[in-house]
Amino acid sequence: MQRKQIGVFFGGQSPEHEVSVITGLQVVAALDPSQFDVTPVYVTKDGHWFIGNNLGDITRYADIPALLSKAREVALASGPGRTLALVERKSSFIGSSKEILLDVAFLAFHGGSGENGAVQGLCETLNVPFTGSGIAASALGMDKVLSKKMCQMVGVPVVDWLEVWEYEWRGREAAKLEEIESQIGFPAIVKPVRLGSSIGIARVVNQADLDNAIEEAFRYDASVMIEKCVPNLREINCSVLGDGSDCQVSVLEEPVSKEGILSFKDKYMRDGLSSKSGGSKSRGSKSRQGEGMASLDRLIPAPISQELGEEISKLARQIFKALNCSGVVRIDFLMDDALQKVWFNEINTIPGSFSFYLWQPTGLPFEALVQKLVELAISSYENRSGRVRSYDVNLLATRSKGGLKGGKS
Ligand SMILES: Nc1ncnc2c1ncn2[C@@H]1O[C@H](COP(=O)(O)OP(=O)(O)O)[C@@H](O)[C@H]1O
Ligand SMILES: [Mg+2]
Q: Which residue from 295, 258, 256, 254 is spatially nearest to 275, judged by alpha carbons?
C-alpha cells in the first residue's frame, strides 16, 4: 500500500477549541508513521488555517501568538485526483506558494462548524475523503432537537421536551413560561439546542429560574430546549464504530460528577487541560499529549446490569444507523436508577479523544482505531463518489438555439 498523506485538522471556532487541540494531537501521535505522513493543521479561534513544524507539540499551545509567528497560513483547495491541497497564503509573489497534497482529512474538531457538517461539506466540495460522519449525520448530531426526533422515529426513548425559538419567546414570555410549566413541569433542564460542553445548561425549579435560564441559553443559540429532569440520574455512554453496513459497540462508561450536571470543568479541567495524568479511573497510554475527555472521572465498564447494558448497546446501534453515522461516535444516555429506565440524551459525532478509552478494553488500541477511521473515510468516499453526479449532456449546447427559458421542468 502506498504511503498516505493525512492532514489532522483541529482547533476551530468553537467553545471546545482547546479540547479539540488535545484530541487532534492525540491522533497525530497515534497515526502509524510507517504508513502515514501526517500534517497537523491548526485552525485558530478566528478561523485561520495553519501548518508548521511546531504544531504537533502541545506545549507550544500555551503561547499561541509565538506558535503562529513560526507557522504558515494555508488556504484549502481542490488538488489533483481526490486530494486536498493546502496552499500557502504568502503575501509576496503570486505563484510562488507551495502546496501540500492530502489523501485524507482527519477531522478532530469538537463543536461548531468542524462537527456540524459545514467542514464535512467543504471536504465533499473539495472532493477529498474525510473521517467521521457525512454532512447530514453531522448536522443532525449537533442539533439536540433534530437528533431526538430521529430517535423517536425509530422508537428510541427520549425524555419529554419542548423547543422554543427566540422569535416565539420575545413579547410572549409569561405565556410561554406557563406553557412550559404545564407541559414539562419542574424540575426542568434548559439547554441551547446546538451547543456542547454543558455551556448554557441549567437545572431550574420555578418560573423565575426558568425565565433566567432561557434568556441565558439565548445568548448562545436561537432556540433552546426545555426537558423533563430525569430523577435518580446516572449517565451511561456508549461508543459506536463503523458505518451503516457494519458497526460495533464499545464497552459502556459511566461518567461521574459531584455536582449533578456534568460541567465543563468536570469534562475537561479536572487536572488542567494539558495534564498527563488526568483524573481518570481508566488510563490512556502515558505518551499521550494531555488526556482531553479521558481526564473525566468515569467508571469503565459502567457498573450496570447485563440486561440494561445490552439494551443500551442495542439502542446505540439503532441510533447510529438511524442517523446514518460513520466513523466513531459517542452516544450518551440518561438513566433513572430507581426505575432502571434509559433515554437517549445526545450523540457526539466527533467524540472527545475519539473515545479511545472505550475501545482499548475491547482489544482495539488507539493506533488501530485511528487507522480504522482512515479506512472508513476512504470507503465512505468511494461509496459516495462511485455514483452518477452529472449527465454527459451539455444542455447549453443542445438548447442554444431556442434559449433555456422554461427549460426546467
Ligand atoms: N433531562 C435531563 N435530566 C437530568 N440531567 C440532565 C438532563 N439533560 C442533561 N442533563 C445533565 O446535563 C449535562 C449536559 O447536558 P447534555 O445534553 O449532555 O449537553 P452537552 O452537549 O452540553 O453535553 C448532562 O451530562 C447531564 O448531567
Ligand atoms: Mg453531554
A: 295
Q: For residue 275, what pLDDT is reported?
A: 35
| Domain co-membership, 152 together with 166 | no
Enumerate residues lining ligand 1, CB below 6 A.
159, 189, 191, 196-198, 201, 227-230, 233, 235, 261-262, 332, 334, 345-346
Do 111 and 202 lie in a common domain?
A: no
pLDDT value at 372 more than 80: yes
198 alpha carbon – ligand 1 mean position (Å)? 7
Look up residue 346 and give its three cell numbers: 445526545
Considering the domain architecture, whether residues 212 and 329 belong to the same structural domain is answered as: no
- CB–CB of 213/188 below 8 Å? no
Q: Stretch 298-320: mean pLDDT, rounded?
A: 97
> Alpha carbon of 141 to those of 21, 116, 196, 240, 380: distances in Å?
21, 7, 11, 14, 18
140-158 residue pLDDT tens: 999 999 999 999 999 999 9
The atom of ligand 1 lying closest to the CA of 260 is 27
Query: What is the pLDDT, as a whole number, of residue 273?
Result: 42
Q: Whose CA is nearest to atom 21 of ligand 1?
A: 196
Helix (H) or strand (E) segment spanning residue 221: none
Domains contained in the chain, number: 3
